[in-house]
Design brief:
The protein has 196 residues and is of the alpha+beta class. The protein has helices spanning 4-12, 20-44, 81-89, 95-107, 133-144, 173-185, and strands spanning 90-93, 122-130, 150-157, 160-170, 191-195. Strands 1-5-2-4-3 form a five-stranded antiparallel β-sheet. The termini are far apart. Keywords: Membrane, Transmembrane, Transmembrane helix. Residues 117-196 form the SPOR domain. It comes from Arenimonas terrae. GO terms for molecular function: peptidoglycan binding.
Amino acid sequence: MARRSNKNQARRSGGQGTPGWVWLLVGLLIGAVITVGLLLRGQWSEAGSLLPKPNPEARAPAASEEPVAQDAPEPKKPKYEFYDVLRDKEVIIPDAELSAQAQAEAAKPAEETAPEAADGPRYLIQAGAFRSSSDAEALKARIALTGEVARVESAEIQGGTIYRVRLGPYPNASTLAAAKQALGSHGIDAVAIRAQ
């Protein structure tokens, strides 16, 4: 006895429709016709029709008094108010000058090396400046491992906040040089500053 379910199954799967391979051939044929048409269209069109054509009779314009291009306006200079204030109140001490000051202080008699008055210059160390407070805190922690005590100060610069990692104040250039050298021996680059 023949199984009836196979015949029913054949009828349900679209026995009367167009087979899939026919649709595949029709799609390929349409794609080939479009491709050939585009290729032939490119050959039939005039080559270089989109490019400008030179005029052999054209002459250069006579020189005039007016410049063709106007001078560009001067670019706006950014305002660095913080740095202007810093320049007036804080001066970076180069390493050579710092070591010379420290040697000069060491050569002075003991009574002259007393801590300077509160009106005199203050000596600070800036170990870094960051846009992120977490970076500044990480450097502060790294400095703490060296035995030095640092703090994070924030400053507003052009609407943004900068976090500076600073140490000090130090009473004189000798203690400043020693602290800076201690940081350098732990791989921390720092800048010595004299504040007024």
